[in-house]
Amino acid sequence: MKIMPAPPQIESVPSWPIMVARLGGGAGSEPGQVVTTQAFARLLVQAEYDSHGAFSNSTSIYTVPQSGVYRLEGKVRVLDGSMPAGYSIGLGIDRYEGDGPSFFWGVSNPSRQGVINQRVAYFDAGDPLRLCVYADHPGVPNVGVASAEFTLDRIR
Question: What is d(CA 20, CA 4) in angstroms, rounded to the nearest whole number?
Answer without folding.
Answer: 25
